[in-house]
């Protein structure tokens, strides 16, 4: 009795875990599809093409001169390295006057016309502090004395100058030439002739020599003192 009851309970427990409807096992067919990529022998590992700019290589220029190279006819690599300051150290100054230079003959064409006289209305006003001073001894009984005055150029280009004494200077002073063209900075000095003619007067005379550079909007001033005895 107990054995029969145990068997019935076990059978009921097993049937609880079984599906209500039994699915019949049908025959299954696995289908496969063949995918063909490319042709036989094609490399499908990736594209290895690169432009020339992306390839490894040397970018150095060969250590050789081009065909027909002549070192004597080429421009030196040091040409122009000093700039305008090279003029102060005795460097090549190029054309010595405005215009065109044709070879060693120094033949000039198309130069800038130089003023021959002082423009009307130009004022000669000395600066509060002169750029230099010149002292000269003159015999009052003589016909006068002329002393050279060397003026160093201060402009970066050729400049026309106009020289005269200020209105408050002693009338015995004069200068020549009153017009001219001054060289570039570092070039040749301009030589002016300063004359004092006391006309028999004795004493110490003073004058202010003003050199106007209108194109550069500047001027050079000298204090001139004449000791007449």
Architecture overview:
- This protein has 1 helix and 10 strands; from the N terminus they run αββββββββββ.
- By secondary structure, the protein is mostly beta strands.
- It is rod-shaped and about 145 Å long.
- The relative contact order is 0.15.
Structural class: mainly beta
- What oligomeric state is this? single chain
Q: For the terminal residues, how far apart are their CA atoms?
A: 172 Å
Low-confidence stretches: none
Number of strands: 10
Number of helices: 1
Secondary structure: elements and pairs:
Layout lengths: L1 H15 L83 E3 L4 E3 L22 E7 L6 E7 L7 E7 L7 E4 L2 E4 L7 E7 L6 E11 L4 E11 L1
Parallel strand pairs: 3-10
Antiparallel strand pairs: 1-2, 4-8, 5-7, 5-9, 6-8, 9-10
Annotation keywords:
229 residues; mainly beta; 3-stranded antiparallel beta sheet; rod-shaped
Concise description?
By secondary structure, the protein is mainly β. Helices cover 7% and strands 28% of the residues.
């Amino acid at each position: 009795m107990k054995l029969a009851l145990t068997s019935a309970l076990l059978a009921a427990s097993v049937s609880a875990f079984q599906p209500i409807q039994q699915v019949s096992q049908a025959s299954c067919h696995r289908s496969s599809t063949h995918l063909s990529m490319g042709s036989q022998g094609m490399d499908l590992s990736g594209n290895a093409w690169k432009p020339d700019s992306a390839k490894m290589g040397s970018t150095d220029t060969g250590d050789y001169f081009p065909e027909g190279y002549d070192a004597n006819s080429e421009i030196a690599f040091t040409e122009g390295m000093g700039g305008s300051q090279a003029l102060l150290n005795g460097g090549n100054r190029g054309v010595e006057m405005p215009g065109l230079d044709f070879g060693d003959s120094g033949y000039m064409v198309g130069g800038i016309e130089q003023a021959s006289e002082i423009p009307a209305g130009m004022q000669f006003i000395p600066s509060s502090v002169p750029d230099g001073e010149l002292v000269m001894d003159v015999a009052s009984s003589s016909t006068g004395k002329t002393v050279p005055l060397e003026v160093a150029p201060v402009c970066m280009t050729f400049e026309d100058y106009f020289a005269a004494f200020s209105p408050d200077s002693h009338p015995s002073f004069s200068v020549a030439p009153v017009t001219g063209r001054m060289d570039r900075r570092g070039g040749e000095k301009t030589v002016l002739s300063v004359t004092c003619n006391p006309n028999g007067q004795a004493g110490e005379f003073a004058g202010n020599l003003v050199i106007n550079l209108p194109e550069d909007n500047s001027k050079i001033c000298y204090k001139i003192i004449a000791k007449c005895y």
